[in-house]
Design a protein that fits this description.
This protein is α/β, with parallel strands linked by helices and 477 residues long. The protein is 40% helix and 21% strand. The chain contains 13 helices and 16 strands. Strands 1-2-4-3-5-16-6-15 form an eight-stranded mixed beta sheet, sandwiched between helices. The chain has a four-stranded antiparallel beta sheet with strand order 10-12-8-13, covered by helices on one side. α7 crosses α13 (457-476), α9 packs antiparallel against α10 and α11 (388-402) packs across α13. The longest helix has 33 residues, at 5-37. The N and C termini lie far apart (73 Å).
Length: 477
């Protein structure tokens, strides 16, 4: 036995040395791969920790056991299917492409119903992918489709318009158009939907129905959705989904809720008419300022004394304009404001009561009044209400694709969205995707001149869109 000890010792030392060398080669290969092939390692840590193969399929070096994106059968959705979608979305060349598309749109913002260049960019990308579409809808909108051409039909929508805001963010891809800016993230919405189209086209042979892609104009105070519906954008569609970027959540986090998500929103302008006269002899006048003041006070009672305190509603008077002569009672006063509610019943009850209160209070003070709700200008937005089953579908997709920690149930918000018009026609779900990144300065809310996004969200949004659509077709085919 003693004669074997030197031999055994040498063998042990050789084995340790071999293991150490192999371990160093393994570590170096990971380090070089992550530094050269994937600059998004930090952001995608959360995703790849849930789907570890996603980082492999997103790089250039696939192992022999890695699934082929084209050969998978996902009739029963599993982790492999999620990895395949993420793998397509996270390829470095796709990430650079989707960022480049968003930057082009950001540099050339266009207001409601003026999105000609944006629409052309989208159509150019669809043409390159050989995706069929119909144009125009609602003046500049597009309806594209991918899949079998038959049922079921599921739609995904992106809004395209910008805002009349001067961009204050100094960066390489700042808006080139004075006084116009993508200050609400619609450029990102378009890029994510085009990104989803690219994923779905590569997986078209797996689709069990048809995905409809809606690129919509004029969400901002234009009710483009209403005109898209009028142009048959929802023909054959059984369900519809849409996303909005959010600074309330870190980059890549998905948020939604069942039922009411966003409030219905309306505006009003009331003209109260009396008879002007000298302020020193008020008995010779009919004072509209007194009547308007009483109307403002009484409007507050609609919510505080007529509405269920558990049913959130808002009536706010934001404008009060009368005369400009300090010694003269004017003949008219104009007041205006906004109202919000989370159900159609409450919303239209507010509309009715605002009109009644203003008109009747004016009459108490011998004045007359008219109330305009700008219905002809399409400024009334109904509440955005998520269908329970469609919400559950979004939750399931986000949880399976990105992991349970990356989905959140969010509270309702008093903001409004014209996606609500779609939700009145077919089952729908609206969800948020986080873009908050304090390091980048992506912290400002929409409609701010300092608005910006964390672009790392773009491929994630594209993957979520694509998976929502593909899985819907599988489960409803």
């Amino acid at each position: 036995m003693n004669s074997l000890k030197p031999y055994l010792l040498s063998l042990i030392l050789f084995s340790i040395s071999l293991f150490a060398n192999n371990f160093l080669v393994f570590v170096n290969s990971i380090t070089s791969s992550s530094s050269s092939d994937n600059e998004y390692t930090t952001f995608f840590d959360a995703v790849t920790s849930i789907n570890p193969k996603a980082s492999l399929t997103s790089g250039n070096n696939q192992t022999a056991s890695s699934p082929s994106h084209g050969s998978l059968s996902c009739e029963a959705w599993d982790m492999t299917c999620s990895e395949a979608v993420l793998g397509l979305a996270l390829k470095p060349e796709n990430i650079e492409w989707i960022k480049g598309l968003r930057r082009k749109i950001h540099q050339n913002p266009e207001l409601a119903f003026e999105e000609y260049e944006t629409s052309q960019q989208v159509r150019d990308e669809l043409d390159r992918m050989e995706i069929e579409y119909r144009y125009p809808l609602a003046k500049t909108g597009i309806r594209a489709w991918i899949g079998t051409g038959g049922p079921p039909f599921v739609a995904i929508r992106a809004d395209m318009d910008a805002l009349p805001i001067q961009e204050a963010v100094e960066w390489e891809y700042k808006s080139k158009v004075p006084g116009k800016m993508h200050a609400c993230g619609h450029d990102a919405h378009v890029a994510m939907l085009v990104g989803a189209a690219k994923i779905l086209k590569k997986r078209e042979h797996l689709l069990k129905g048809t995905v409809i892609l809606l690129f919509q104009p004029a969400e901002e105070a234009g009710n483009g959705a209403k005109r898209m519906i009028g142009d048959e954008a929802l023909e054959n569609v059984e369900a519809i989904f849409a996303v909005h970027v959010s600074h309330e959540h870190p980059t890549g986090i998905i948020g939604s809720r069942p039922g009411p998500l966003l409030a219905g929103c309306g505006f009003f302008r009331a003209v109260i008419s009396g008879r002007k006269g000298l302020a020193g002899n008020p008995h010779h006048s009919v004072d509209p300022i007194l009547a308007a003041s009483a109307a403002v006070i009484s409007l507050q009672g609609i919510v505080s004394r007529e509405s269920n305190p558990l049913d959130s509603q808002v009536v706010s008077v934001t404008s009060f304009n009368g005369g400009n002569n300090l010694d003269l009672i004017p003949d008219t006063v104009v007041i205006g404001g906004t109202f919000r509610a989370f159900s159609n019943a409450s919303f239209y009850n507010l509309l009715q009561r605002i009109s009644e209160v203003v008109v009747e209070q004016a009459s108490v003070f011998r004045c007359s009044a008219t109330v305009d709700f700008f219905e002809k200008d399409s400024t009334i937005y109904p509440p955005t209400v998520n269908d329970d089953l469609m919400y559950e579908h979004v939750k399931k997709v986000a949880t399976d694709l990105l992991g349970p920690p990356n989905f959140r149930v969010v509270p309702p918000m008093m903001g409004a969205e014209d996606f609500s018009f779609y939700s009145e026609v077919v089952p729908a779900a609206f969800y948020y995707i986080g873009v908050r990144n304090e390091t980048l300065g992506s912290i400002h809310t929409g409609h701010s001149p300092y608005f910006m996004i964390d672009e790392d969200v773009l491929p994630i949004g594209a993957a979520v869109h694509a998976t929502i659509a593909e899985r819907y077709l599988i489960e409803h085919g």
